[in-house]
User: What shape does this take?
Amino acid sequence: MSHFVLMVLYCGAVSLFFALLWRHEPRARLRLFLQIFLGMVLGALLVAYLMYPVPSGPPVAMP
Amino acid sequence: MGGEQPEETAASLPAEVSEEETAGGEPRGKPWLAALLAWLLPGAGHVYLGRWLRGAVFCALVLSLVFAGASLDGRLWRPEGNPLASGSAALAALLSLLSAGLGSPYLALLASGYRGQVASFGYEYGTAFLLTAALMNLLLVFDALDVSRGRKP
Assistant: This one.
């Protein structure tokens, strides 16, 4: 599994948890789920692009 | 002059906050038992309070995160040495305390000797999954307490 898939799974689990915990109506749940999920995923992508110019060092061989 | 003012009814007022969001419920069950069950097994506190579906969904969600975290070889924080010895030891003790919020899954992983593999591809993600699952379970404990005391529906 790639880092991106793991990140999306993590964001989905966290969003689902808080949507179920904090809202009790289906529409409100869906709205909060989308807000948290898109905020996390798009925020992570934005931070990743902002970090693009920062050198990350030599590549390391994956085991 | 002096035209009729439109009658303001409750239905015409903006409903910024729905009734369900503000209303609590009736107190039910014993709060300490709900909290204990919620800590022991994710979602069990809600099942005890009659919230079967929510309890089942929370249980599946938290246990899935634990399973994913352990499959990715994430670190299971455990108390090691004197927490006052150094900053890293204090942080480890704090994270161990947080991880213990996971309840029986944490105890089961401890008993099985699971530690995690720092060289593994998914080590960081696995650690994040395990810590997040523990934080979720702690929030479920407080939620079960609120439902039991009638502060939440």
User: Anything to note?
Assistant: The radius of gyration of chain B is 22 Å.
